[in-house]
Specification:
The structure is a homodimer of 348-residue chains. Chain A has helices spanning 8-15, 19-27, 34-46, 53-60, 78-91, 105-117, 157-170, 186-199, 210-217, 225-230, 241-253, 287-303, 337-343, and strands at 65-70, 95-100, 122-125, 140-142, 175-180, 204-209, 235-238, 263-265, 282-284, 326-328. Chain A is α/β, with parallel strands linked by helices and 348 residues long. The longest helix of chain A has 17 residues, at 287-303. The structure holds a DNA duplex (30 and 30 nucleotides).
DNA sequence: CGTTATCGATTAAACGATTAACCAGATTCG
DNA sequence: CGAATCTGGTTAATCGTTTAATCGATAACG
């Protein structure tokens, strides 16, 4: 039968020293003889001592917890993000509290405030499209796109788009339809810009904004992609895998073979992107790296903050480079059908 | 310029009363004249008082935080779950700390221990397939399937499967292939059982276990569904939308029209299920209700726990009924092709 | 009228960790 | 040799909240 949770004084009593010494020994801050420190660590370990978060938080004013706020927690990317952040935070000694800003923009602020009330030391925000984070009295790391002011760390969406654009251009496509979500999203605008740059001036690239389409036709209405193919479009570059699979199935259902008759590409490399048929050519973010940088930036600010003081500076500004995206070359993108025969007229 | 964060004594000083009275007034526990209580609440509000989680946690031994552990945080269902739990927890006054048990089974225990060390009051676990939760000294709510021992709350996967089975049988299908993931998953076994029951004895229902298939052929290998169709299978009942979209695209790519030539159904109603073509007939869990029940069960145990005492009882046992699933009837399921002409020989 | 309840509020003691201030003894230095 | 420095520790205060114990005063009761 275990006794109650051991605390500092339990260790202190066991060794006949003062709690202060134990605290110093374990934190390595004060002056303790290395011999005694060793013994203290030993007994602490053998007693199964684990510091009380509450006690420490109360005294130091730091909770050791980071908040994570996403525009829409239902975002299919959330698992990847959450996992990466949790991992990075855990490695840095922080816990991660989730905050949901379901729905409207004000909710985002609400969620942030709730997290602050809970005493988080810092917040990682992936902002709702078109939102600027107000200056709250708490360190904030923003993950968006490098172009966003106040951004802390992000994937290089522009360069990613550019690479994808080049990929399609090299395959010979000359008329591409970009399937975008919301024109308010900085990320999406960057991706569009990059795509256009990569496609170059000779390639026609129209954009279909799904948000507008949804307003006009309804959220689940067909996108009319078969008609686009008849008008000469040979590749569909979706700005998210979610849209890409939507496009892919719509084309397939219309009897248009992918990639034989039309190519489809996506962004994000969501979990199912590799198992569908044809598997999806897409761009993957290095969430691990992004999370690591975001957490590091936050931790740096938090740790050299005068303790009780409420920081006036809101957003953490990091001068780190944008994290490159990785092109996942798979089966959904292929040569432009017109050029197909010229290259190799195999498997029809 | 705001002063420092107001605490109880700030309010007490402002009104010339003792902190204890303020605490009592705000918590409504002690005996305070209603008139004074009113004034206290007013000034508390006008000063923007928000209780210190750390102080309270230290004193009461309760952190007001629940841990959320999922077998695989990368699970595409995670967003829904996390959002629902966060919502329910928030409504009940709790925060949600995420714990990631990425990978192996031991990690699950690791994650749980980390959460406990962080001082969570209780943990919600969606266990890794085939895992039993060891008795940890902390209230736990398990979300799995009603058949699991120690289960707290769950969807009625069996009844859901049964409904889907009936749906397919009524449509005239007589040979169905069930696409399952792992035979170790209680949830999946329940779904298979339900499906078979719903399909009845006259319908042939084979099961393709993807886990075995992946071991034999590789994770991304085609499932060979076209061959199955040639062998007479007219419907594919996937145990998750992830698998369903995999099957759907494989069939489409093979030139098999869905639902004209074969039906496909799923489970989970993931975010993209309604926008693909054809939109997916699937079963949706009532995550909101499940989360609410799980949080309630936890909160109940937590709140009448003798305060400092470490609970010996591990799992929370709730006698609640399984939460029903909801059949989302969409376009991917249709009449059995053989009977199609008999019913109505329209479009295509 | 003396004895209890009751009400309304105060006192003071935790909870567990951190840390500035202090102190006794041993070194070192001018 | 006296003073300053260093070493290895201890004391005590503090973070903000909760809560059991207490206390004066007023009302109720036999």
């Amino acid at each position: 039968m275990k006794s109650e949770k051991p605390n500092l004084s339990a260790i202190a009593q066991a060794l006949g020293v003062s709690v202060a010494t134990v605290s110093n020994a374990l934190s390595g801050k004060g002056r303790v003889s290395s011999e005694l420190a060793e013994r203290i660590r030993d007994t602490a370990h053998s007693l199964g001592y684990v510091p009380s978060v509450a006690g420490r938080a109360l005294r130091t004013g730091r909770s050791g917890v980071l908040g994570l706020v996403l525009p829409d927690i239902a975002n299919p990317l959330f698992p990847q993000i959450a996992q990466a952040i949790e991992h990075a935070a855990s490695a840095a000694g922080y816990g991660v509290l989730i905050g949901d800003s379901r729905g409207a923009v004000e909710q985002q602020t609400q969620a942030i405030l709730r997290l602050i009330d809970r005493g988080v030391d810092g917040i990682i925000i992936i902002p709702r499209r078109g939102t600027r984070i107000a200056d709250i009295g708490c360190p904030v790391a923003v993950i968006d796109t490098p172009a966003t002011p106040g951004n802390t760390v992000a994937s290089d969406h522009w360069a990613g788009g550019e690479e994808m654009g080049r990929h399609l251009r090299v395959l010979g496509h000359r008329s591409v339809l970009i399937l975008a979500g919301s024109a308010l999203s900085n990320v999406q605008n960057d991706r569009v810009g990059g795509l256009r740059a990569g496609l170059g001036p000779d390639v026609r690239a129209d954009v279909l904004w799904l948000e507008r389409h949804a307003e006009a036709e309804g959220a689940e209405a067909p996108l009319g992609l078969a008609a686009r193919v008849r008008q000469g479009v040979t590749a569909f570059a979706a700005l998210s895998d979610l849209t890409a699979v939507r496009a892919l199935t719509e084309l397939q259902a219309a009897g248009i073979a992918v990639p034989a008759a039309a190519s489809v590409t996506g962004f994000d490399d969501l979990i199912w992107s590799s198992v569908i048929t044809p598997s999806l050519t897409t761009l993957r973010m290095d969430m691990g790296e992004i999370a690591r940088q975001a957490v590091q930036a936050l931790a740096a600010v938090i740790e050299d903050l005068p303790h009780g003081q409420v920081t006036a500076l809101g957003t953490v500004v990091a001068e780190r480079a944008a994290v490159p995206m990785k092109l996942m070359l798979r089966q959904s993108s292929g040569p432009c059908p017109a050029e197909r025969e010229l290259l190799n007229g195999d498997e029809q």
